Amino acid sequence: MNIEVVKSKIHKASVTHANLQYIGSVTIDEALMNAANIIENEKVQIVNINNGERLETYVIKGERNTGVLALNGAAARKVAVGDVVIIMSYASMDFEEAKNFNPSLVFPDTATNRIV
């Protein structure tokens, strides 16, 4: 039996841009992506702490060490610049394997989105 588990999590990062006219997705600073073990085009869930919105989209690699976190396309309607979000990705794995799996958890500085 396979189950879905949290693979990666960026906990409490701030939205830097909301680009309504951009083709969908979320742009994330490459340094955050690497720290969280998230790759470009991976599906993620985004939870907005400020307003309770939840959405799913895919990741675009942002410029490293810029702190960029941009919600693009329709997702831009779910956030405001400055909102604090949690970004999670999931993996499907065997139940027994999942018992010993440790997700990649990143807790950036919320003001700058830099890794502390």
Description of the molecule:
This protein is mainly β. The protein has a single domain (2-106), classed as Barwin-like endoglucanases (Beta Barrel). Helices cover 10% and strands 47% of the residues. The chain has two helices and eight strands; from the N terminus they run βββαββββαβ. Strands 2-6-3-5-4-7-1-8 form an eight-stranded mixed beta sheet. The relative contact order is 0.36. The model has no long low-confidence stretch (mean pLDDT 97).
- Helices, by number, come to 2
| Helix percent band | 10-25%
- Supply the CATH architecture: Beta Barrel
> Structural class of the helices, strands and pairings?
mainly beta
Give the N-terminus to C-terminus distance in angstroms. Answer: 37 Å
CATH class: Mainly Beta
Shape, per Cα inertia axes: globular
**Overall tally of structural domains:** 1
CATH topology annotation: Barwin-like endoglucanases
> Uncertain segments of ≥5 residues (pLDDT<50)?
none
The portion of residues forming beta strands comes to over 45%
Largest sheet: 8 strands, mixed
The radius of gyration over CA amounts to 14 Å
- Strand arrangement, largest sheet? 2-6-3-5-4-7-1-8
- What's the average pLDDT? 97
String of helices and strands = EEEHEEEEHE
